[in-house]
Batch of 3 targets.
Target 1
Amino acid sequence: MGQEESHNEEMNPAQIQELCIIFMKECPSGALHLHELKRIFGVASSSEEESLYIETIFRSFDTNRDNRLDFLEYVAALNLVLRGNLEDRLKWSFKVYDRDGNGRLDKQEVKHIIRILCKIKVQRSNMDMTPNEVCDRIFELVDQNKDGQISLTEFMEGAQKDEWLMDLLKLDVNATGWVIQNCCKLP
């Protein structure tokens, strides 16, 4: 697999610029809070899975942990999710999975994200495995030294070995298509 990832739909620079202008209009203070991000992208509070997913993603981009995205964090997030190369997206995905930030994934961390992804993806495909089965299979394929944890190196190497695994680990739930679809909902 190459370093560049092909997207089903591509966001052009003008569309990304439009999202940046919306940020400036909606957040003149320069700080985007989670509830504002949900409003901008039309995430319904009734959609628990989508809401959990956006919260997890939001936290991964809040690099200074102040519970808001400043403009630079927002632009970096858009560029990574919508235009980033495969290696950068996998490193970001690892960061999302690694909830405690210790640089290693345990089964609880992986199960947490897999539960969210399974609920979202089940609407788009036939996922015939439970989150526990998915987690066990990920560890079987990726945990090379069988220590019950996945390092960034194991994560990166494992993801590129298997298409099924890559689909789960890179957290791709068609982010570009989702943003394009939800741009229409923007105020």
Target 2
Amino acid sequence: MSPDVVKHSLGGKKVLIVYAHQEPRSLNGSLKDVAVAELSQQGCTVTVSDLYAMNFEPRATGKDITGTLSNPDFFNYGVETHKAYEKRSLSSDIIEEQKKLQEADLVIFQFPLYWFSVPAVLKGWMDRVLCQGFAFDFPGSYDDGFLKGKLAILSLTTGGTASMFSKTGVNGDFRYFLWPLQHGTLHFCGFKVLAPQISFGPEMASEEERKRMVPSWAQRLKTVWEEEPIPCSPPWYFGQ
């Protein structure tokens, strides 16, 4: 298949990049920019939610419901946002992010690892946007999650080297910290999860190693649509 045919076939693909870094000139900023450039060149429509630039509200509060509460005497965030989603009375910033998600074929989360997890602003995005009724229900989780059919990738930077995130390293295997994010959040909502893109220890890496991080991400994205999802099961994360 010629490159032109490939580009044409990807013309309808939509990508959402949920980006959480304060500094546009950071490695995270460069990884985000090269993803936009490469995927746009493929003919994809790319949307970026730059959470810091948007001043995205991370706190899950009663302000997320614009209508009347079902139980004003005892506030239960999960119950109230579920009902508000059904009544179309969630706050406009949540509705806007849900619309971007609904349209996306691929969602890339670009962030620096904070405490083996995501920065607070990205955690807040997950708390508020992935509400019951929209992303999942009971039944309606994991392989039956409401975002099934969509792909997701975590692209992140770490403060430690690859050897520190190995089974024998001080931090343990990098797959351990991926469990709550990839399995408990993304797979729970139905995403097919692709292998993470981890740029290990850029601050500690040699100049040569740092220079390879951005091009290697761009190179991977050239064939990202052909990748097989990881097997979302405990053995992948924790071994047999």
Target 3
Amino acid sequence: MTLMKRPSNRFTVLPFSFVPLFLFGFVINIANGHERPQKTNVLRTPTKKPLQFSSNSSFKIAVFADLHYGEDAWTDWGPRQDAKSDRVMSTILDQEVPDFVVYLGDLITANNLPIPNASLYWDRAISPTRARGIPWATVFGNHDDMPFEWPIEWFSSSGIPQLRCSPTNSTTSEACSFRGTLRVELMKNEMQQNWLSYSTNGPQELWPGVSNYVLQVSSSDGQGLPVAFLYFLDSGGGSYPEVISNTQAKWFQNKSQELNPKLSVPEIIFWHIPSKAYEEVAPFFWIFKPCVGSINKESVAAQEAEMGIMDFLINRPSVKAVFVGHNHGLDWCCPYENLWLCYARHTGYGGYGNWPRGARIIEMTQQPFSLKSWIRMEDGVKHSEVVLSS
């Protein structure tokens, strides 16, 4: 989503350098008094145990969307917003105690960040979840690998701050560039440094999309039988168009048919930018049933084109719901054909909009299978509960 300027453990991932800190002195303090998130020294385990429902046959997911860490990183305002985002996630994690967290894109505002700093902010975004020992997965948004945008104030009388380059690499243009951190680099850093991360680059043939993968949720009896599949798709933006490609759509068709040929296992889909189908079901003004939600403050900002993914989804009765972020002023769920289209809730204090922050919670039960969702706000209020499948 284009930003408005502020006023002046247990998953199966199914197949499907230290760069010199050339950060400016005023950007280095990414935490505004907080210590830089510590990198874990635990090596990524070679295999993952299956994701399982708990003994009480439930599984809960917290969805954090549009955190936008690092926005206006060179000002006092930016670090204050990041501290507030820390607080939102910590509060919701402690209240809901989820089994799993989905980071639904725009973890960072990369167009405000030089290359090494982007990974530091990404690491901070996942730190509240990691600190509590909760596993997570990420999907990319349109701001996560945008090119650096030079602040206009740097061209005033104060001038452009001096760039800090590595003494050993100071002669190379790469060490002093502002090209931004690419999706592949961000994902590589997350996967290598966090054994609780179940994110993956996905199939190389889906390039330039990166976060395309599926996780299996298994039964609580330890037999490894699938109860649900969670699909993650890269909806583009930043370094390439905002779209889920036809290649990605065909990958989903083939993979879902391979894993779930009888359509007997529910499937839940996550990506960042809403498809054009969201425009078709969007409430006009007030949110009336069958839609459920609390804010409808802007128009749907959909992907640039529809390349086939929705055709595959609506023709699979096993697909129960799609969850997206991107629009900060929307948090509704509406039925569409045989599934539900849902927004998350703007979680971070970065990004546009002054609506109260919160997170979408998703809860599945095993026998019989059910899927319901609600919004948990930063102040503890719970609202907009909806049954998506029963």
